[in-house]
Design a protein that fits this description.
Order of helices and strands of chain B: EEEEEEEEEEE
Largest sheet of chain B: 6 strands, mixed
CATH superfamily of chain A: Immunoglobulins
CATH superfamily of chain B: Immunoglobulins
Distance between the termini of chain A: 33 Å
CATH architecture of chain B: Sandwich
Strand content of chain A: over 45%
Strand content of chain B: over 45%
Number of helices of chain A: 0
Helix content of chain A: under 10%
Helix content of chain B: under 10%
CATH topology of chain B: Immunoglobulin-like
Number of domains of chain A: 1
Structural class of chain A: mainly beta
Largest interface: A-B, 27 and 26 residues
Number of strands of chain A: 10
CATH topology of chain A: Immunoglobulin-like
Radius of gyration of chain B: 13 Å
Shape of chain B: globular
Number of strands of chain B: 11
Oligomer: heterodimer
Chain lengths: 113, 112
C-alpha cells in the first residue's frame, strides 16, 4: 500500500486477555517504530527495528509486551494479560532508515475493560 | 524525562496571527523534526532540520535550531483554522541510528 497500515483500528478487550496489533510498513522501509500515546499525552517509545539488527526494546514497559518483525516487513506488537493502564493509542511508523522522516499509521486504539 | 519538551503546552490564537512553538532537548542531536497530529491519530511529518542548519522554511513554516541552547522553534505564519492540531518535535540522537524521541507536544487552537 501507499502508507503505513495498522490493524485493527480499534480494539476493546477484557482485562487479562492477550492482544495482537499489526503494522504493515511502507515497502522498502528498513526502520520501524512502535509508540504508545495515552490521551492528551506525548508519544512514548516502545520498540525500534532497523534492518536485520537486533531491535531496541528499551522502551517496552514490562515483559508483558513483545514485538516481532517478520521478514523485515510486517510487525506485530503483542500485549499479554492486558491491564487497564495499557489502554492507549498504539502508533506504528516506518522510515527509509533510522532518524529520517517517519511515516505514521493511523494507530490502534486499545481499550481494556 | 523526555528528550524533547515543547512549550507552551497549549496555545490559542486568532486566524491570521502567527503561532510560535518551542522545543528544548537535552543531548546532542543528528537532526530535529516537527510533526503535526490531528485528532489523536497518526502524525504527519512537517519539516526536518539537521544539526548543521540554523533555519529552514517550508511554505508558511519556519524552523530555527540553536544547538548551543539545545532548542528549536516552529513558526506558523498567517495561521488558519485548519492549522488547529497538536505539534510535536522529535529528536534523532547524534551517533545513533535509532529511534526518534518525541516531546509531549503543543496543542494549537486557531480561532476563526
Amino acid at each position: 500500500g501507499a502508507g503505513v497500515s495498522q490493524s485493527p483500528s480499534n480494539k476493546v478487550t477484557e482485562k487479562g486477555k492477550d492482544v495482537e496489533l499489526r503494522c504493515d510498513p511502507i515497502s522498502g522501509h528498513t526502520a520501524l517504530y512502535w509508540y504508545r500515546q495515552s490521551l492528551g499525552q506525548g508519544l512514548e517509545f516502545l520498540i525500534y527495528f532497523q534492518g536485520n539488527s537486533a531491535p531496541d526494546k528499551s522502551g517496552l514497559p514490562s515483559d508483558r509486551f513483545s514485538a516481532e518483525r517478520t521478514g523485515g516487513s510486517v510487525s506485530t506488537l503483542t500485549i499479554q494479560r492486558t491491564q487497564q493502564e495499557d489502554s492507549a493509542v498504539y502508533l506504528c511508523a516506518s522510515s527509509i532508515k533510522g532518524a529520517t522522516e517517519a511515516f505514521f499509521g493511523q494507530g490502534t486504539r486499545l481499550t481494556v475493560v | 524525562s523526555q528528550q524533547g519538551e515543547e512549550d507552551p503546552q497549549a496555545l490559542s490564537i486568532q486566524e491570521g496571527e502567527n503561532a510560535t512553538m518551542n522545543c528544548s532537548y537535552k543531548t546532542s542531536i543528528n537532526n530535529l523534526q516537527w510533526y503535526r497530529q490531528n485528532s489523536g491519530r497518526g502524525l504527519v511529518h512537517l519539516i526536518l532540520i539537521r544539526s548543521n542548519e540554523r533555519e529552514k522554511h517550508s511554505g508558511r513554516l519556519r524552523v530555527t535550531l540553536d544547538t548551543s541552547k539545545k532548542s528549536s522553534s516552529l513558526l506558523i505564519t498567517a495561521s488558519r483554522a485548519a492549522d488547529t492540531a497538536s505539534y510535536f518535535c522529535a529528536t534523532a540522537l547524534q551517533g545513533s541510528a535509532r529511534q526518534l524521541t518525541f516531546g509531549s507536544g503543543t496543542q494549537l487552537t486557531v480561532l476563526p
